[in-house]
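thread: overnight batch results

M.L. [08:02]
morning all. the overnight job finished for the chain we discussed friday. pasting input first so we're all looking at the same thing
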Amino acid sequence: MAELWYGSSVRVCVFDLDHTLVSSPLDLAAMALEMRAYIESCRGALPAREERYRVGELVRWCRDHAPDISTPVWDIALDHERRAVAAAWLEPGAREALIGAREAGFATALWTNNAREVTEIALDRFALGDALDLVVTRDEMTEMKPSADGWRVITARFAGVRDAVVVGDSWVDGVAAAAAGVPFVAYRPREGELARWKITPIAMLEDLTALPALLRGRANGG
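M.L. [08:03]
and the structure it wrote out:
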């Protein structure tokens, strides 16, 4: 990883990992179903509801109600992530977007809900680590996205952030960006999910190589 940027006035471009820089067959719904099944085998049925329980909600439930089973629940998540990263592929234009962000005057950070172990495997395999100034995984956060806690970690490392954007594919990234008060750039999003969660990106990209021009425009007052 590159040396961190410090200074009185820093611009930061924050990237999501899954389906933004790197894609994989990770199935969060399947992960959540297995986690829920384990929790219910230990603690009985969770309250019924129309929507499925999401991974972050199940983790939070364990933390608040059954901390003694938090470790095996996290192990389920890590097992899914390990298997998915083995079949991961680099998103087209990912490295160009990172290098272009730097050239536009932005420090680069990663903000992902993945474990650090799995994140480092992906960054090493695709040689992305040297293009990132900071990597924030769930191991450094107290709450995963859509919480903005990762932004707290980012601003603790970069002094004097004057401008920032968050780049991601999911409503989770958009909600986290909004909670942090940071503009959101959506990469190949599901537009119905953006509408449902009332997320208004400043831009929607189909091609990551278009990002540096957008950032140059911001840096030049556009």
